[in-house]
Amino acid sequence: MRDASEPASSAILDLGLHVVVIDDDDTTRLLVRRWLERGGMNVWDAPGGAAGLELVRDRARSVGVVVLDVMMPDVAGFEVLQRLRAGSATSDIPVIMLSAHANREEDVVEGIQLGASAQLEKPFRGPVLQARVKALLEQRGRQLSVKERL
Question: Residue 34 in 3-state DSSP?
Answer without folding.
Answer: helix
